[in-house]
Design a protein that fits this description.
The chain is α/β, with parallel strands linked by helices. The protein has a nine-stranded mixed beta sheet with strand order 12-11-13-14-23-22-21-17-18, sandwiched between helices. Strand 1 (17-21), helix 1 (37-49) and strand 2 form a beta-alpha-beta unit.
């Protein structure tokens, strides 16, 4: 099946938007009050020297729109000068209009008077007028690469809840339509998006009113903002990538609109490692633009909000307050150079025959379900994605709400409490047509209708459940070891895998079964079937009686863990073995294809040690620079290497 990596049109032969969120060091959000064009020119020149071709700029709303029917000519003149300095530097910009939230502070226009951002018709009209008038003045400027309506407006609208449970999705969608129409009415034909952070229910499992399914038809690209805090290194490195995968809606481009790290949290070398991992892993997950937060540090602004009360916000810069490029900026520079070298605008992700099915309970908010269900689907599916990447599988992340794909050989249904009733016949159909369908049993994390909502589980998988009503079969130890009684892919009979166990009292459980037509693949330490297989038609169904993905998702510092080994074996069994793989799950591989037929392979080290790996592939690998053939790849700690593949 096809995996999206849709590119936005870019000017001047650029390979992608390689940008930065920009406030001048002369004032941060208040830069327009302390505008210094010469300083800005120097800042832009330094960014351009390091591969930056784009800024995301911000029209601080209280300054640019001082009265309901009045724009600040002074501020607009400064913005016009700002654009000319971009032109001289060879850098484009994406203006952002509704900037009422920034870095831990909210600011209102003085005339808002508590009006609702989305539901007050007059207030929405004033926003639309402001946007149309600004666009009308600058729409024809070649420096404008695109438009963003807002900066993280769910926090501006309701900072305490971030919109979760308080913002009405229909009001939000109508508001977005009106404001985007205002951009078009002002003559803006460049790509437009919202700037909300893509924190909606389809990504987080929590409804903040900004539903991607409703907003996607309105926008030209989707722009996640990702600042995750994790308890596992590999989950941290792949967190933004998984969100990019979840935003694969109708092949709309995904631009990583914000990510970054404050120097107050980590040392510079580790910050650079993080940048490297996020840039490359999101590229391999389908992102086609990158705009880190942010250009410079703000030590000189320590006495003003938001930095006075959120001092860590001063130090997200790629350049420190003395003008020194941080190692993070050098990583962006190297990344930009690589995109030029491989002609990224002509690259696509190859089709895949492996898919992770994400339950619709992530996003659908079915009646009489519990708030924990959606976020649990997210964490489990993300851990499944981590395991698939550790197994080097070129996996697609597909949503149950969009149907079960037909053109895949391996379908992974990870630790799922519930799917829709009509999905199970689809999965059976795919198996009968030749696919291998793997599903792992899961009771859920709570006692509300505890148990897997799988209709006809026994008949589907050829087993008989041995549970007692209202009770669980608890897993009482911190690990589960399974032993294979038969070969599975490249796992030999007699091999053992040991999995960590984590989660809530309800989630730390398994499904005891007896066989009724299935065959045992592996048993646990007490002799209960842990993996069973039922052949149907041209394919098969494999049931895991343990929710291994949930266990891992609930366990700190667990990756890599044996689910990757299991997935690799399932892929081997299904005939979906990746083209390039390595033995160590600490090194991730992925292939990209050029429109002229060339192919490139990425090796991404998840270890803090130097790794030497000998890839398994039928192709020949050669270096990009010299073209010399290479059989062993050396990777520095958290390092990335890209080679060309020749058949």
């Amino acid at each position: 099946m096809r995996r999206a990596a849709t590119h936005l049109p870019v000017d001047g032969g650029k390979q992608a938007w390689i940008g930065v969120n920009f406030w001048s060091k002369t004032g941060g959000p208040l830069m327009w009050r302390h505008y210094d064009g010469e300083v800005i020119s120097a800042e832009l020149a330094q960014l351009k020297q390091h591969g930056i071709n784009l800024t995301r700029s911000f029209l601080f709303w209280p300054d640019f729109h001082p009265q309901p029917d009045e724009l600040s000519e002074e501020m607009l003149a400064k913005f016009a000068d700002f654009l000319r300095r971009h032109e001289r530097a060879g850098v484009q910009t994406i203006p952002t209009f509704i900037v009422g939230h920034m870095s831990g502070e909210n600011w209102d226009p003085v005339w808002r008077n508590g009006r609702d951002v989305f539901g007050d018709v007059w207030f929405v009209g004033r926003q639309a007028w402001y946007i149309k008038e600004v666009v009308r003045r600058f729409a024809a400027d070649p420096v404008i690469a695109g438009w963003l309506l807002t900066n993280e407006v769910p926090i501006y609208a309701d900072w305490q809840s971030r919109g979760v449970g308080t913002l009405d999705a229909d009001d939000v969608s109508a508001w977005a339509q009106i404001l985007i129409d205002a951009v078009r009415a002002g003559g803006g034909q460049q790509p437009v998006s919202i700037g909300d952070g893509s924190w909606g229910v389809e990504v987080t499992g929590k409804d903040n009113g900004f539903r991607s399914r409703q907003l996607e038809p309105l926008v030209d690209f989707l722009g996640p903002h990702v600042y995750r805090m994790e308890d596992d290194q590999v989950r941290q490195h792949l967190g933004a990538a998984f969100i990019c995968e979840l935003l694969d809606f109708h092949e709309k481009p995904v631009v990583l609109e914000e990510f970054g790290v404050t120097s107050d949290y980590v040392g510079e070398e580790n910050a650079a490692h993080y940048y490297r991992q996020v840039l490359h892993n999101t590229l391999l997950a389908g992102a086609t633009g990158w705009i880190p937060w942010n250009n410079v540090d703000y030590d000189a602004q320590a006495e003003i909000a938001p930095y006075s009360h959120h001092p860590f916000e001063m130090h997200f810069g790629l350049i420190d307050d003395q003008g020194r490029p941080k190692l993070q900026l050098l990583e962006v520079q190297k990344f930009a150079a690589l995109l030029e070298r491989v002609q990224f605008s002509q690259l696509q992700r190859p089709d895949t025959s492996t898919a992770i099915l994400v339950s619709s309970f992530l996003e659908a908010m079915y009646p009489f379900t519990t708030p924990e269900d959606g976020p649990t689907v997210f964490t489990v599916a993300r851990q499944s994605y981590v395991a698939a990447r550790e197994a080097d599988l070129p996996v697609a992340v597909v949503r149950e709400a969009d149907g079960v794909p037909r053109d895949v050989r391996l379908i992974i249904v990870p630790a799922t409490k519930a799917l829709r009733a009509d999905t199970w016949p689809e999965l059976m159909d795919r198996a009968e047509s030749g696919a291998l369908v793997y599903a792992s049993y899961f009771n859920g994390v709570h006692a509300n209708q505890r148990g897997s909502w799988w209709p006809k589980l026994d008949e589907t998988f050829g087993v008989k459940k041995q549970l007692r009503y209202g009770l669980i079969a608890p897993v009482e130890h911190d690990t589960v070891t399974i032993e294979f009684l038969t070969d599975l892919g490249d796992i030999a009979r007699g091999e053992r895998l040991t999995f960590a166990v984590g989660g809530t009292a309800d989630g730390r459980s398994f499904l005891p079964v007896e066989l009724d037509g299935a065959e045992v693949i592996a048993v646990d330490g007490d002799g209960w079937p842990a993996l069973v297989r039922r052949n149907v038609g041209a394919g098969a169904l494999v049931l895991s009686t343990y929710p291994f993905e949930y266990f891992a998702a609930s366990t700190p510092r667990v990756n890599p863990e044996p689910t990757a080994r299991l997935y690799a074996a399932l892929a081997n069994e299904a005939g979906a073995t990746p083209e390039v793989t390595v033995e160590s799950p600490l090194v991730l591989t992925a292939v990209m294809e050029h429109s002229d037929g060339r192919r490139f392979v990425w090796f991404v080290n998840q270890s803090d040690s130097t790794m030497d790996v000998g890839p398994k592939t039928s192709a020949t690998m050669r270096t990009l620079d010299s073209g010399a053939p290479i059989a062993t790849v050396r990777l520095e700690p958290f390092g990335v290497e890209v080679l060309e593949l020749l058949s």
